[in-house]
UniProtKB/TrEMBL annotation:
Keywords: Hydrolase, Magnesium, Metal-binding, NAD, Repeat. It comes from Clostridium sardiniense (Clostridium absonum). Residues 37-160 form the Nudix hydrolase domain. Its EC number is 3.6.1.22. It comes from the Bacteria. Its cofactor is Zn(2+); Mg(2+). Signal peptide: none annotated. It holds the Pfam family NUDIX. This is NAD(+) diphosphatase. It catalyses: a 5'-end NAD(+)-phospho-ribonucleoside in mRNA + H2O = a 5'-end phospho-adenosine-phospho-ribonucleoside in mRNA + beta-nicotinamide D-ribonucleotide + 2 H(+).
């Protein structure tokens, strides 16, 4: 987020010229610079053989399925967030996580850290947060997730990796 007021003392922030960073909101009382802060979020494609795990969550996209995603907690490795979110949302344990690159959601202040992971164990046991979960053939996945732009990029990367 872009700070206008100091989160510590409530004072309206001044702009401070911070060399390469340009003008940055600054609290002279607390002597603190408040840089813009996108929130880190993970997206993970879980692969089992030639299938990938897709969720249906209508509050995100009405007509598309999505990959598993979630916010990185304070003091948590993004990789651990990915393992945790998959387990929490689907009941599935994963292994061999692989970083696929970062992305962002325009205007949403989110930094998306994307991964693929392999199925390790467990049966699908969906959380209340999720409407539906299922294994979908990787080759059919893209047609079912048109609204999920970042998820689509992740699945394309997974397809590329598998073809090598
Ligand atoms: Zn302050």
């Amino acid at each position: 987020m872009k700070y206008k007021f100091c989160p510590k003392c409530g004072r309206e922030l001044e702009m401070f010229n911070c060399w390469d960073e340009g003008e940055v909101p600054y609290c002279p009382v607390d002597n603190t610079l408040y840089f813009d802060t996108p929130r880190p979020c993970i997206v993970v494609g879980v692969v089992k053989g030639d299938e990938i795990l897709l969720l249906k969550q209508s509050y995100i996209y009405k007509n598309s399925k999505v990959l598993i995603s979630g916010y990185v907690d304070q003091d948590e490795y993004a990789e651990d967030t990915a393992y945790r979110e998959v387990l929490e949302e689907t009941g599935i344990e994963t292994k061999n996580i692989k970083y696929l690159g970062s992305d962002f959601v325009e205007g949403k202040e989110l930094l998306m850290i994307t991964f693929m992971a392999e199925y390790k164990s467990g049966e699908i046991k969906k959380s209340d947060e999720v409407e539906g979960i299922g294994w979908v053939k990787i080759d059919d996945a893209l047609a079912q997730m048109q609204e999920d732009k970042i998820g689509t990029k992740v699945v394309k990367k997974i397809i590329d990796i598998r073809e090598k």
